[in-house]
Amino acid sequence: MTGNPAWYRWEGRDLILHVRIQPRASQDTFADLQGERLRIRITAPPVDGKANTHLCRFLAEAFQVPKSSITLVAGATSRDKRLRIQAPRRLPAGIAPPPDGDAVA
User: Fold this and answer.
1) Sign of the alpha-carbon dihedral angle for 68, 72, 76, 81
2) Is 64 a member of any domain?
3) For the whole model, what pTM was predicted?
4) pLDDT digits over 63-94, tens only?
């Protein structure tokens, strides 16, 4: 997940992620970069918002934040999504801390 920083950016202490979702995967995992998006595999089907709910739950656990700290900003009905993660407490590999020096707790 290193290299191209176009798939995420910081807005203060909030992390904005640009992702491409692969629903109905065999496991929940961060995959690879696909263009300017991080591909995330999730087990949920893309039906009735189940994939979005599952994605937010997966990201909340990965970034150690409450589910309420994850906001789907764009892409509710698309595989390409933009999400806001408020003040993440843990950063998965490939995501650098905020440039303003705010340490991730």
Assistant:
1) negative
2) yes
3) 0.86
4) 999 999 999 999 999 999 999 999 999 998 88
Domain of residue 46, CATH code: 3.30.1200.10
In sequence order, what are the residues at sequence separation of 6 or more whose Cβ sits closer than 8 angstroms to the Cβ of residue 99? 10
Give how many domains the chain has, as a whole number.
1
In contact, 73 and 47? CB cutoff 8 Å: no
Nearest of 72, 89, 91 to residue 30 by alpha carbon: 91
* Bridge partners, 23 (sequence order): none
Host domain of residue 72: 5-86
Gap between the Cα atoms of 34 and 11, Å rounded: 22
- Vertex 43: Cα angle to 3 and 22 (nearest 5): 45
Q: End-to-end alpha-carbon separation of the chain, Å?
A: 21
Query: For residue 28, is it within any domain?
Result: yes
